[in-house]
Amino acid sequence: MVASLLQGSEAGTLVPVEKIMPYHITLLETPPALEIQYIGRLSSTELMASVKQAMVLAEKHQCIRILTDCSLLEGGHGVFDLFEGVMEIYDNFVGSPFREAIVQSTDPKAAELVHFWETACKNRGLNVQVFPTRQAALDWLHT
């Protein structure tokens, strides 16, 4: 069972289509994990909002595993924005058994940003891995 938690704003709030943010966060119940799906262009503001919302939900639902689906991500932010997000994760999860499995973007520029995120996280001791498919990411996440 999958429970929808947020789609760029508080669940249950009607938002005009043009204002819906390009990410969706859901709770995968067995085993507990958050899934963040990014679609299209993601601004630096939207990136940080998604990171902060995911951290709040991870704490609320006792999730230390995150599946991040970037397969439809097209960029829109830069390495400095990613580094800021990595530091947020680091400040909250360093020393914990946190794991993030990332599904690679099909967009070449966005794929470079995904690999930057992975490298920056690993350099700070966070357990993050990029995979070519969702199934490969889920298999690693749940081992």
Structure description:
The structure is a single chain. The protein has four helices and six strands. It is α/β, with parallel strands linked by helices. It has one domain: 2-Layer Sandwich (Transcription Regulator spoIIAA), CATH 3.30.750.24. Strands 1-2-3-4-5-6 form a six-stranded mixed beta sheet, with helices on both faces. Helix 2 links the parallel strand 4 and strand 5. The N terminus is likely disordered.
Give the key terms.
disordered N terminus, single chain, 6 strands, six-stranded mixed β-sheet, 143 residues, Transcription Regulator spoIIAA, alpha/beta
Layout: helices, strands, pairs:
Layout: E1 2-6, E2 23-28, E3 33-41, H1 44-60, E4 65-75, H2 79-93, E5 99-103, H3 108-123, E6 127-131, H4 134-141
Parallel strand pairs: 3-4, 4-5, 5-6
Antiparallel strand pairs: 1-2, 2-3
